[in-house]
Amino acid sequence: MGDSVQLFSIRPDDYARFRPAYPNSLFNWLAEQCSTPRCAIDVASGTGQAARALASHFDRVVACDASIEQLTGTADWRSAERFAAQAERLPLRDGVADVMVVAQALHWFATPAFFAEAKRVLSTDGLFCAWCYSLLHIEPSLDALIGQLHSDTLSDYWPQGRASVDAGYRDIQVPFETFQPPAFAIEIHWSLRQLLGYLRTWSAVKRWQQTHDQDPVTELESEFKRLWGNPERVRRVRWPLHFLAGYPGR
């Protein structure tokens, strides 16, 4: 995971504060796919957004991440067990998991070694479900400015793997048959401060800052303020989720 560990270990508390939460309906659906929702594994858990939601539906939730800083941040992990490990080498027994999820992280390690490990850890009928989200949608003028930041200012600063996110994981080949889950999306209501905080969690923003010793979001902040209006105004923000799901053991 290399660069991803470094980039996402800089300020895990900010990452936890400004990253949007996944919809509860997604985790209801995941639990419904199991005859007995006993054990769920959250791989590359980060600050535990998915792990915390899974804990409401599964008897046991195990969260792993290559970054110990992410796992030991101030986030509330509820009852989830945590350990640091590479995704391709999970210290778990064969067939232990009913569900394995990878939230916004599969692009870092979508290798044959990882998929073999997923098959090993999952039960025969265990569900593998990875998802990602790319650019958010607010309204056309703000979407265009965010697109300018993403695709123009930061075009050379996205780490390897980001292209898979922007492609909705359609470019990732897996050694098992996949199916399309129901449509889910993240929806949240944010002020301008929250939006700018989220943009500053982008890995490419951190790389740009390291190179230029400046903040590319700050450079666009006056234009964001003009388009947003009252900075305390709350607007709806939406990210469609894109999935890669299947049953590796079947």
UniProtKB/TrEMBL annotation:
- Give the species this sequence originates from: Stutzerimonas stutzeri
Key word Hydrolase present: no
Question: Does the entry feature the keyword Methyltransferase, yes or no?
Answer: yes
Q: Which biological processes are named by the entry's GO terms?
A: methylation
* InterPro entries reported in the protein's UniProt record: Diverse_substrate_MTase (IPR051052), Methyltransf_11 (IPR013216), SAM-dependent_MTases_sf (IPR029063)
Q: What is the protein name stated in its UniProt record?
A: Methyltransferase family protein
One of its Pfam families is Methyltransf_11
Q: Which family does it belong to?
A: Belongs to the methyltransferase superfamily.
GO molecular function per UniProt: S-adenosylmethionine-dependent methyltransferase activity
Write down the CDD domains for this protein, in alphabetical order.
AdoMet_MTases (cd02440)
Chain ranges of the Methyltransferase type domain: 42-129
Question: Which keywords fit this entry according to its UniProt record?
Answer: Methyltransferase, Transferase
